[in-house]
Amino acid sequence: MSERGRARFARVLLFLVSGWLLYLPAASAKSSEATRQWLLEHWYQALSSPLDLGLISSMLYGLVGDAEAAAQGETRQALGALRGALGTVDRQRLDCGDLVNLRFIGSFLEMNGVAFEVGALDSRLHACLDEMKPFDRASLLFSLCRFPSDTLPREKLAQAIKSIEDLQQADGGFGSSHGLQRYYLSTHAVFALHSCEGNPHVVRRGQLYLRNGLPQLRQLGFVDGVLESLIMLRKMGVDIPQQRLYTDYVRSKIKQDGSVCFFDHPGCRSDPHATSLLLEFLREFGN
Questions:
Q1: Would you kindly state where each structural domain of the chain is located, as residue ranges?
Q2: CATH code, 3-285
Q3: For 226-277, what is each residue's pLDDT tens digit?
Q4: How many angstroms separate the first and last alpha carbons of the chain?
Q5: 14 closest CA partner among 262, 202, 191
Q6: Among the residues of the chain, which ranges form H helices?
Q7: Residues of the chain with pLDDT under 70
């Protein structure tokens, strides 16, 4: 999977993080500073033309994941640069997946006091619901439930929720694919249904799928997956057995510059998505 593809899978977390604003103790803030600086250094590379909206949304939630982070001068400057760069985007040429990315980014900008007309995207996004691939549909569902659209008929929303619920398999995961594609579809489906108040039995089975998958993710060295599952389970209030085992694993993979790899292997390169997740992990779980 390409870096752009991996980055797209971060969209829903962008707004999960925005829903739980935390105030950090000084020690935790200090320990995460290297990670924040790594992201800021790579931020302006992501704003180069042509814009990769998936990568931008992947990095954004880590940088502005709480009120304190969003208020920092360097972060405000980064948001201003993003708003300027978005002015170069031809919205008429965007496919449905990138329209979802843009709605997430724009909503988060508005939450942080940066002007952006999110509502102007909704008519096209509503038309996309029926033709979207399951992952994009789950991502849009989360966005529509977290930031409601008054123009979407309730019946159409209910149909979209049911279409995601119908993808659940016997093990609690979603979809018939394998590997990374199935993992990220499952995480996004669980969050969409949780946010949209879908069938509680489906949501609970999906949560257990994420929790039960942690041992294998750690064994595979799938750092990004361990981070995402830990954060998602914490946000949904799900108990994590042997939590210390996984949090210690994550901390052992942090490089000197504050970044982490997507997959852990000798000589692996630091990854923006995984490092952005790491910044939120440090907020949630401390040092």
A1: 3-285
A2: 1.50.10.20
A3: 999 999 999 999 999 999 999 999 999 999 999 999 999 999 999 999 999 9
A4: 31
A5: 191
A6: 3-8, 11-19, 26-31, 33-46, 53-63, 67-70, 73-86, 96-111, 122-128, 134-146, 154-165, 179-195, 200-220, 223-235, 243-252, 272-285
A7: 1-31, 66, 287
